[in-house]
What we know:
Elements: H1 2-13, H2 19-51, E1 59-62, H3 63-73, H4 75-80, E2 84-88, E3 94-97, H5 99-115, E4 122-130, E5 133-140, H6 147-151, H7 174-184, E6 189-194, E7 198-206
Parallel strand pairs: 2-4
Antiparallel strand pairs: 1-3, 4-5, 5-7, 6-7
Amino acid sequence: SGLISSTELLSSQVELLSQEDIRDIAAELHTNARNTYALLEELLQWSQMSQGVIEYTPEPCSFSELVNIGLNTLKSTAKDKDIVIITDFPDDLAAMVDQSMIKTVMRNILSNAIKFSHQGCEVLIRARHSEGKITMAVKDNGIGMSEEVKSMLFTVNKAKQQLGTDGEKGTGLGLMLCKQFIEQHGEKLWVESETGKGTTVFFTLPKG
């Protein structure tokens, strides 16, 4: 509906709009288009995962490269909210993962951290390795979530969905998809959160 209303306004009143109005509408169109694309992509991946048609092909790769790919796709989103992203993990850390799956996991979890953070806050990405595993944590200091919302995170339930601090909407599928992709690696994903105190998403990966 956001896309339709914005394009209707632009097409019917373009001669009456100032340059600033047009820039604002263009920015809104970009955000809505990006959200729609993310929804379609997650629906496609969810459908493929449910039907068992996504192949699991692990290979050794640089952990920092995986993180940087996720960060690059969200650079403008973080900049818009003046979010500072801090990384804390060894440069030589390597993982044995399906890169396509883990890129999706990184993008979703980092996107959520930015979405639910307040303007000017920090997001911390930390990773450590021990006993053949990498444990990663993505921590924000945003709005957090109640126990009720947290209990529904991995279910298809519209009641669990929260708006971001700038009114950003989610698909409700992202974390469910992430959990399935992590479990495909034989690993775990879990969430710690408290209302008003932020959220930390943890997951483990096989070490490369």
